[in-house]
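ping. complex inputs:
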Amino acid sequence: MAKNAFYAQSGGVTAVINASACGVIETARQHSDKIGKVYAGRNGIIGALTEDLIDTSKESDAAIAALRHTPSGAFGSCRFKLKSLEDNKREYERLIEVFKAHDIGYFFYNGGGDSADTCYKVSQLSEKMGYPVQAVHVPKTVDNDLPITDNCPGFGSVAKYIAVSTREASYDVRSMAKTSTKIFVIEVMGRHAGWIAAAGGLAADAENDIPVVILFPEVEFDQAKFFAEVKAKVDKYDYCSVVVSEGAHWPDGRFLAEQGTRDAFGHAQLGGAAPVVANMIKDELGYKFHWAVADYMQRAARHIASKTDVDQAYAMGKAGVEMALAGDNSIMPAIVRTSNNPYAWEVGKAPLSEVANVEKMMPAEFISENGFGITEACREYLVPLIQGEDYPPYENGMPKYVTLKNEGVPRKLDPFEL
Amino acid sequence: MAKNAFYAQSGGVTAVINASACGVIETARQHSDKIGKVYAGRNGIIGALTEDLIDTSKESDAAIAALRHTPSGAFGSCRFKLKSLEDNKREYERLIEVFKAHDIGYFFYNGGGDSADTCYKVSQLSEKMGYPVQAVHVPKTVDNDLPITDNCPGFGSVAKYIAVSTREASYDVRSMAKTSTKIFVIEVMGRHAGWIAAAGGLAADAENDIPVVILFPEVEFDQAKFFAEVKAKVDKYDYCSVVVSEGAHWPDGRFLAEQGTRDAFGHAQLGGAAPVVANMIKDELGYKFHWAVADYMQRAARHIASKTDVDQAYAMGKAGVEMALAGDNSIMPAIVRTSNNPYAWEVGKAPLSEVANVEKMMPAEFISENGFGITEACREYLVPLIQGEDYPPYENGMPKYVTLKNEGVPRKLDPFEL
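pong. complex structure:
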């Protein structure tokens, strides 16, 4: 009899992680001879540990199809990393107990680096604990930091959002610069790697001569050099846009966002890197500023998702199921770039042992010599990833996203304390 | 011989103010027997005072048409309010000198409340200083605070952006709430009126049961009541979204965001209510939070503009020219709502004497009884304004916005010191 599958979403969600879920579930439904039901973990792996399973077979085909254009994690996500088998055998035994109780033979985990590690550990259950399960990691992370795969589903849409928003806001500040705002600062995600910050550089191109100064986490913050760069841009353009990564930091490692400035009332100023950067420019150069912090908006912005990203997210989910059906275990489908211009890609395969706990950094040659911009090589890498629009349907002026029923699977086991 | 026209953009720019410019210029071009060239003021009224005029006849029809889908102010804007005729006769004499030198008989000013006042003063030049000019104010403001007109071009698109972003981020935080973030705070514009904050309430509807708590500038901040409201939402939903207006303030009038700096008009410079609110929730209730500040992104977001808003912005520009051609002076075209369901509107006309320096506040019956939400009446008012999508063209994954040549008109006069 066909084994059931477990699917879960892990870590920070994205605009397209549900497109991967859609790819997994639709493909599984096409192979009902080999895969029974797809049970989703409510809130990621926690759903497996606590036997809190969602029966996705209760969802209509239309609802599952709508996942493709719905941002966020439809089944709930979690930040929870399994310890090693040696350190916490109890959790692995529980997983097997739940898998057995619900006849689960496939494990699809949709997440980033930490999740790949969890998936890798589950993939070892066959060998180390004698329970047959095929574990496939479906890549997802806005941080774009998974190894082997050319890029990560989720990143392209954030990149598009940041590129578009930076261009739009730059047009705005350019309009205001004569008598008002000269500096616009936007803070973006990416604590360890500057991939998302780099996307801000796409605001400018041959037809859009926009001054953009980027503060990367890869480059130690040099305040004097930064002031000189901003001043040079304002001298030339009368305005300047600054894209600051949340991970931008001083030479001593302190994040810019941690700077202990105080407001007019003597309270410690609460806030991120953007207000800190904006205020230091004002203090040194006197320019009036505006600042924005994109935060969750950037990774939830399904309304401006990259079509390439949506297609790849779906393809990774689909390929994950197909690989499992072909007998694979302990692998991750990956995106392989086969051509830059025109952009072409195909589905590859990465062993989880080479994915788990490896962080891909941005290559040094992607950052311009002065440390404040992107190179042509970086642009060549990024531009294909934001190609195409894939608008969700609208109703009454609002995007029509789906909220699933998420009906639980009846429990068969005793409760489990996390 | 046909008189030339002067057109300028004033105050904070929007996603659709260029659509109004498009309406003015395209309509003027259709009436070249009565209107000669359209000269745009570089950086608003400052362009008129300093004889810094842009010859829009040098722009192709295609470039002018592209203004319809380009955010920001294509000719530059300014924050500059003319004093009264009595207090600064010199500026008015200069305006007449420039108008005479360039044979300007039409004055189109595209802005909000302060600009309506400037336009009104210019409209009096005929009567008070004997120079024949027809002055028409083309309404624009994201703050939606002009009187008489049912709504202001620029507002609908910000409202759509905030409604969509709040919905998307709410889906995100809902996914994360089990083990991580439970509170998402988004800060929006609207110093005096809560129109934009109200739009955050549209994130929720019959099919999207999302807990949204709104902090309006119209409602004195009651911290204890706010904590109780947020706690009740989290108890029920496990998460909560908070939309805070930059104008939200304590009972003593202090803004939640107050930084102690002031802008060119002496208004307190805002930005930072979101981190303040997020941190106070954390301190009192212990919930993990994320916060975003939309700032310029919200009013520049042409990529998610409301079609209704774009259409109305264009129509106001067009109607302004048509009214001038019909002999009107000292007026503003206005949007008249003739039906709610289905939504229908037509172009009306408002005398500038009744527009200048009048601020339309949000009706008390638009705010729910507890002060943290919107009523059905408010929803009925808002929903039509965000109807329809009007996507810009894309190239290489990015919106293709136009930057005009903005060639100057040769100067004929001596320089003028502002």
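The radius of gyration of chain B is 22 Å.
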